[in-house]
Amino acid sequence: MLLSPWIAALVAIFTWWFFTGVILFIVRKSDGSKEVAHSRSVFLSIPFAALGVAGLFISAAELTTINVYLAFISALLVWGWIELAFLAGIITGPERTACPDDIKGWDRFYRAYSTLMYHELLLVSSLLVIVVICANAANTIGMWTYLIMYVARISAKLNLFFGVPHINTEFVPKPLEHLKSYFTQGRITIAFPIGVTFLSLAFACFIERWIASETSAQAIGFALLTSMAALAAIEHWLMVVPLPDAKLWRWMLPKPTPVKTGDSHEL
User: Fold this and answer.
1) Which tens digits make up the pLDDT trace of 104-144?
2) How many alpha carbons lie under 13 Å from residue 11 in its C-beta half-sphere?
3) 230-260 burial, b if ≥16 CB within 10 A, otherwise e?
4) For the chain, domain boundaries
């Protein structure tokens, strides 16, 4: 059954939803526990990141159906651990306070970047490592999977900073509450069409490669990449079209811990 590229496309959609849900679940549970819970969850999940790196090494050697799926899942494991470390507030940046209202322009941009600096450096470093592992290998699906997510995430961050009409802050964890002050809810800027156009071109390119595939492994690999590019583009459009996308995961997450009135504050 997994030899069908259409099944592979469904696998990509399910794993995207499942991995996102697992990360949100861990972060929400840690939010409702002691302060050390976030650090503990990141530390205990390090073996999954290590498995992801090992999987990329193993799967890069040969382009087979099994290796294509292994490369795809491995890239998600590496990416997922980095995202967990970020959402847990462990690997973020040197700036951990809300943005003052009087800071504008490039000063505000640099301050916003400072809230993410270490996370961005880790993302880039991981990308370089994956490129070294996969660039000249027989199987590059893991590299392209990570690259799609990387480009989509950079574009999404820029759009949240420069401005989009719809911003869902429901799942922003406690360690990153200050990030809300760097979001801009308003009209779209040039960053949105640039990001969507790039992702749409990637989607079209992967579809063409899927159709032109000569082997089952190639077709499955490009089906996975096509689905990821489509999901990335859809996530961008959800910043413009106010659809209730949070419902995809809200039902499976524990309820957030109520904030006491005396401890609440506006950002």
Assistant:
1) 899 999 999 999 999 999 999 999 999 999 988 999 999 99
2) 20
3) bbbbebbebbeeeeebeeebeeebeeeeeee
4) 5-247
- Looking at every residue in the chain, the average pLDDT score rounds to 90
In the chain, the amino acid numbered 248 is: L
Rounded distance between C-alpha atoms, residue 41 and residue 46, angstroms: 9
Rounded to whole angstroms, the Cα distance separating 75 from 78 reads 5
- DSSP-derived secondary structure for 156-202: HHHHHHH-BS----TT--GGGGGGGGG--BSS--THHHHHHHHHHHH
Q: Which helix (H) or strand (E) holds 146?
A: helix 141-162
- Say which residues have a Cβ less than 8 Å from residue 223's Cβ, sequence separation at least 6: 5, 6, 8, 9, 12, 210
For residue 167, give both structure tokens: 């911003």
Question: 33 is written with which tokens?
Answer: 């526990």
Residue 184: Cβ-neighbour burial (10 angstroms; 0-12, 13-18, 19+): middle
Choose among 54, 62, 200, 75: nearest CA to 127. Answer: 75
Provide the Cα torsion 72, 74, 77, 79; round to 10°: -70
Tokens of 76: 């998600």
Residue whose tokens read 């490369």 = 71
pLDDT tens-digit readout, 206-257:
999 999 998 999 999 999 999 999 999 999 999 998 777 777 787 777 776 6
Element (H, E) at 229: helix 216-237
